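hi! just following up on the protien thing from before. the input was this:
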Amino acid sequence: METIDDIVRFSAFGLLIWLAVLTLRDFCDRLAGRLGALSALSSAAYLIATKPGLSVLGVDMDMALLPFYTISPALVWLFCLSQFDDNFVVTNTHRAVTVAKMVTGGAGYVSWKLGNIGLFWPLMAISTTILIGLLVHLAATAWRGRHDDLVEDRRRFRSVFVSGVIVISAGILVSETYLRGNGLEPVGLTLQAAAFLAITVFLLWRLSAPGGEDIFFRVAGNGARAAGNDHCDLTPADQHDLDVILGLDGTELVLEPGLTIAKLASKLKIPEHRLRHLINQHMGYRNFADFLNHHRVQAAKSRLSDVNDRNTPVLTVAMDMGYGSLGPFNRAFKARTGLTPTEFRMQSLMEVAPAAK
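and the predicted 3d structure came back as:
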């Protein structure tokens, strides 16, 4: 078993390092690329640190790499979140959760090594609770965003990748909680290494495929291509449906709260697969959220620059545009205009004031 474990573990380690090198070389200018590289490196550290009795120059690897591998679940969580949001940013909440996972996991492991079981169990309980929370949040994010992406290959990839991450993380949780000390730990560790190897091979295979870099590390887009592009291959029926979609600009339908592509397809009486194709291939939007945000931000700009609406709270404007809260509205607005809604309103009203004199 130890020989098999070594083969699988060090193969996975080498491929993870190679994956990190590739992502840093080609995608270090993008947050998703940096998070992907950090996730790969921390996962590689986990594989080395969990190799029983491994030491280098007399230094135990489990202790030397402790800060790097205890943070691994949080880094993988952040990388997965970046795959569901073209404009993803790391917030203070993300940072707090990451630090909490690293501190509780690291302190728990040190207390176990020192034989302080009284401190080990509460720390491990907190660390385990955080990990379960990360998995639940990731699963919920994947479920909510399962229909949002308009690129079929990317939707399939995310389903497989996120499912793999959840299964591996859950397996690690079970093995570390229930297999330790009962003689089954070697089997559990080998299975963990095999799971890391499988998902790393999948990532490298998908990244090397045509268009793979776009699936992983695309650049966020702020709108569509100019209308009229790529229409030469449209059938008359497609052209009619595209005209219907283009006619949504300025209508109340795109401002409807909770609007999904399935609901829009039903209201427009266009098959969902055709609607996805037209919005993506002939309008240039990569996901449905970008399509909605484009229309909603355009409508919001009109409201915010209207003198008669100058005293309307920004939150009210956000709600009228179909947003459930102010945060997503602010992020979508700034991503497309470079200004917050409040800054845009002040600038617009200052430009109107001299003309009114």
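The radius of gyration is 25 Å.
Confidence is low (pLDDT under 50) at residues 219-232.
cheers
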